[in-house]
Design goal:
There is one protein chain. With 180 residues, this protein is mainly beta. It has one domain: Sandwich (lipopolysaccharide transport protein A fold), CATH 2.60.450.10. Helices cover 13% and strands 48% of the residues. It is built from 1 helix and 10 strands; from the N terminus they run αββββββββββ. Strands 1, 2, 3, 4, 5, 6, 7, 8, 9 and 10 form a 10-stranded antiparallel sheet that branches. A hairpin with a 7-residue loop joins strand 4 and strand 5. The longest helix is centred in the first third of the chain and has 24 residues.
Length: 180
């Protein structure tokens, strides 16, 4: 009776991890470091006030103080919606004020990010951060009202072409190589 339900839950939890991993690992482009290698081996813990699974619609919605933790990875959102018709994930959307994420990198540095909405478009391999978006690692920081990152080609776009002048793209980078 519960086997199809548990199978769907397991698939969605694993897919949720991939979304979060892309955000925490891929979008921090200011450093060539990576997330802790053993984080992917850790169990995924998801907590929320409620969850709705609708297999016919291919929908899973976690709502209310959603937390996802896997090793050093920590994600917080008000709501996470996963669209997965026929168990094929097409889009994952996280909303909050803000959605926040952080993860420790192999070099010991902490990568962090936040935005009011984060969307991962699976087929396009594109992450979109909207509304007060920022990514940072140590003192390096990148902010904009809108940030897009392609995990396919590593391209980052920032700024809002639909609303020019509404917020600016800001970046702060500190030198990593100091001359003696």
């Amino acid at each position: 009776m519960y086997k199809p339900y548990l199978s769907l839950v397991n698939k969605l939890n694993n897919s949720t991890w991939f979304f979060i991993a892309f955000i925490a690992i891929s979008i921090i482009i200011t450093s060539p470091t990576h997330a802790l290698k053993d984080d992917i081996e850790k169990p995924v813990h998801i907590n929320a006030d409620s969850v709705l699974f609708n297999k016919a619609k291919g929908l899973a919605v976690y709502e209310g103080n959603v937390t996802i933790v896997q090793g050093t990875l920590d994600i917080r959102a008000a709501r996470i919606e996963i669209n997965a018709l026929n168990n094929e994930i097409s889009k994952i959307t996280a909303n909050g004020t803000p959605v926040s994420f952080q993860q420790k990198m192999d070099d010991g540095k902490l990568a962090q990010g936040k935005a009011n909405r984060v969307i991962y478009q699976v087929k396009e391999k594109r992450i979109v951060l909207d509304g007060n978006a920022s990514i940072s690692q140590n003192n390096d920081k990148f902010t904009s009202n809108h940030i897009e990152y392609s995990t396919r080609n590593g391209e980052l776009k920032a700024g809002d072409k639909k609303a020019p002048g509404k917020g600016r793209v800001k970046a702060i980078f500190y030198p990593t190589n100091k001359t003696k």
